[in-house]
Design brief:
With 373 residues, the protein is an alpha+beta fold. It contains 7 helices and 18 strands.
Length: 373
């Protein structure tokens, strides 16, 4: 098995390599009759696209998406809609520099998957890391844009909340600020301070890690399942599958270990619309099932492994060596992980919506248009 597919009822399979002619995704399980367009998908891809500031890789990819299958445009209204069949999306690679990697073809890069890929497959793509490259995540973002169409009443947003040791001040948190700075940060003051900090990291030939917070609002109670179908487990798997992610937490997460039971339990009160919680340390998930509160997930991204600071390594012939990774790389890969985290949240929620609807016959108030017979 190649393990390039994620999801159950709503699932996607990505294909392609970083320095190949193109990459893409096949989305299967999308309901029919949903209005779709390349422009809608492109909006999400443009947020992940490289080369938009000095704080990301200077690889210049337009990331233009093409819809190849799974849609039909009715001449009666001119609207392109999903047909319920596999949706194939393609993104061409146009700015590869494979020569940048010639010097490292016989060396393993510390922190990269070079050694493990070689051990597993007996072959590795040293030109941009092939499937191990974060370039693959462009296809995920395209799949996430399709997933959002399945759950239109759910709002999914993400923010960089920590860069290196520097955290945001939640008192300054403003979702409107996310797309107004190069870091997708909801704290504009922190974003302004990070510019100087990341400039110094970048100019020194180093990199730094980050923490991203993803929030989904409008998720009704009931999505997910106990034991082996937990919404929380699938979200953790989704975020951990993103390149460079080393940790995931939901709600209070690891901080819950320092709390008492009275501090951690989200108390409940009666309300006009039914029971509600007075806090959300559970992150909108109880027993693996959504509670109706916002679903809150955070994930930690390690520093970019490709740096120009010399590091010790070994060659493929098991000889000691020193390596400098040239090329165009993100000084903080966490920046462009923000829209990727949103996409992975979307595909998991779309999948669980369809699973919940299939099992119970209820959609929890989240519906989508039906196609005409």
């Amino acid at each position: 098995m190649s393990f390039n597919t994620f999801g159950h009822m709503f699932r996607f399979t990505t294909w392609g390599e970083s320095h190949g002619p193109a990459l893409g995704v096949v989305v299967d399980g999308c309901p029919p009759g949903l209005p779709i367009s390349e422009e809608v998908i492109q909006r999400d891809l443009d947020r992940r696209r490289p080369g938009q500031s000095r704080f990301t890789t200077q690889r210049r990819e337009e990331d233009r998406v093409r819809i190849l299958s799974g849609t039909f445009e009715d001449e009666r209204d001119g609207v392109l809609r999903t047909t319920g069949t596999p949706i194939s999306l393609m993104i061409e690679n146009t700015d590869q520099r494979s020569r940048d990697y010639s010097a490292i073809r016989d060396k393993y890069r510390p922190g990269h998957a070079d050694f493990t890929y070689q051990q597993k497959y007996g072959i590795r793509d040293y030109k941009g890391s092939g499937r191990a490259s974060a370039r693959e995540t462009a296809a995920r973002v395209a799949a996430g844009a399709v997933a959002r169409l399945v759950i239109p009443q759910v709002t999914i947003r993400a923010s960089l909340v920590q860069m290196g040791p520097h955290k945001i001040d939640y008192a300054n948190f403003d979702w409107a600020a996310v797309d107004q700075n190069p870091f997708f940060c909801a704290d504009p003051r922190a974003a302004a301070q990070w510019e100087t900090y990341l400039d110094s990291i970048r100019k020194s030939g180093n990199s730094v890690g980050a923490v991203i917070e993803v929030v989904a609002e409008g998720v009704p109670p009931g999505w997910g399942a106990p034991i082996y179908g937990k919404l929380s487990a699938d979200l953790a798997a989704a975020m951990m599958s993103i390149n460079a992610v080393k940790g995931v937490e939901i709600g209070a997460g690891f901080a819950a270990a320092a709390l008492t039971g009275t501090e951690n339990a989200d108390e409940m009160r009666a309300g006009n619309a039914g029971p509600h919680f007075t806090s959300n340390k559970a992150g909108g998930i109880l027993g693996g099932i959504s509670s109706g509160d916002p679903v809150v997930v955070r994930f930690a991204v390690k520093p970019t492994s490709s740096i120009i600071t010399p590091r010790r390594t070994v060659t493929t012939a098991n000889e000691d060596a020193e390596i400098v990774t040239k090329g165009r790389h993100d000084p903080c890969v966490g920046i462009r992980a923000v829209p990727i985290g949103e996409a992975m949240m979307a595909v998991v929620l779309a999948d669980h919506f369809l699973r919940h609807r299939g099992q119970t016959g209820r959609d929890g108030g989240v519906g989508f248009p039906s196609s005409d017979d």
